[in-house]
Design goal:
Layout lengths: L3 H10 L1 E4 L5 H16 L23 H4 L5 E5 L4 E2 L2 E2 L7 E6 L1 H4 L1 H7 L2 H9 L5 E9 L9 E4 L13 E6 L10 E3 L3 H4 L5 E4 L6 E4 L19 E2 L7 E5 L4 E3 L10 E8 L24 E2 L4
Antiparallel strand pairs: 1-13, 2-5, 3-4, 5-6, 6-15, 6-16, 7-14, 8-13, 8-15, 9-12, 9-14, 10-11
The structure holds fe (ii) ion.
Length: about 300
């Protein structure tokens, strides 16, 4: 549950960190689980798909990515490769594990579908909250990629907007290892100028204007000075509003920055077939198969 002060701060800023949300034992259990998953990668079933949201880089959007919505799939750091060859040991090369961890892994399911998460969703006004797009983000030492500024509503687009990110720090997040940063209050002023959609004609994914559905490069691009860094200890929970502008820098330190995140959308909101994430991946649209957090 959030206190009234935390709720008010979230409403004002669009992002809030709650320190000490997970116990040190739970944090350890989840980090151990990540190591276990990393030790089980089988390249026969998990191709070397690089994950990046950077437009200058090769874009995510292949079948492996689209089909990961209800599975445990591994995506690699771009800088773990040189001339097309993997130059890091496998467990040190993974950027991200997703996007159905809450469906397929008990350790992560049990911190996603909980009475307390349900209580927070209720406080935030959800009527039929559904969990989706769960993932571990590793941000590996020295090569962990940056995430350019974005709004989560671009990636999980509902009408009306409803997505809230639940983001758990599993290691300390610092300026050195690429902590989150956000523009306080931007959720009240910044429009969603683009949305990330499946390209139904050509395959893959692209960004389009949400109204015209024409391809666009238009983005919100606030000055760096507007961003506030979220330096937090392991065990913190960060809540992220669908319209708040946020990003994280490259990890140039020797420490990793493990995090687990999932998103919640309103099951009663419209969720169309253009969203990249569908459960099952072949389903045309709708929220019916997304994991219900509570029934009102
Ligand atoms: Fe995000």
């Amino acid at each position: 549950m959030l206190t009234q002060e935390q709720l008010a701060q979230f409403d004002k800023d669009g992002c809030i960190a709650i320190e000490g949300y997970l116990s040190p034992e739970t944090v350890k259990e989840l980090n151990d689980e990540i190591q276990k998953l990393l030790g089980e990668i089988d390249l026969k079933t998990h191709p070397l798909t690089k994950f990046t949201t950077d437009e200058d880089e090769e874009h995510v959007g292949d079948d492996y990515f689209i089909n990961s919505s209800d599975k445990i799939c591994f995506f690699f750091e771009v800088d773990a490769f040189a001339n097309g060859e993997l130059v890091k040991p496998l467990p040190k090369a993974v950027n991200k594990i997703g996007h159905g961890l809450h469906m397929k892994n008990e350790a992560f399911r049990k911190i996603t579908i909980t009475d307390d998460i349900a209580a927070i969703c209720k406080q935030l006004g959800f009527r039929d909250p559904r969990a989706l797009q769960s993932m571990v983000i590793i941000k590996q030492p020295e090569i962990g990629g940056k995430v350019p500024n974005h709004q989560d509503g671009e990636f999980l687009y509902t009408e009306p907007q409803s997505c809230i990110g639940f983001w758990f720090a599993l290691e300390p997040c610092t300026l050195q290892n690429g902590c989150l940063s956000f523009v306080p209050g931007s959720h009240k002023t910044a429009e969603i100028k683009r949305r990330f959609v499946k390209d139904l004609e050509n395959g893959g994914t692209k960004f389009v204007d949400p109204k015209t559905l024409k391809e666009t490069k238009d983005t919100n691009d606030p000055d760096d000075s507007k961003f506030v860094c979220v330096e937090i200890p392991a065990g913190s929970l960060v809540l992220i509003h669908n319209r708040v502008i946020h990003k994280s820098e490259k990890n140039l330190s020797r420490m990793s920055r493990n995090a687990y995140t999932f998103h919640v959308i309103e099951g009663e909101a419209h969720y169309d077939e253009l969203n990249w994430l569908q459960v099952p991946p072949t389903a045309p649209a709708g929220t019916a198969e997304f994991s219900r957090i509570y029934v009102n």
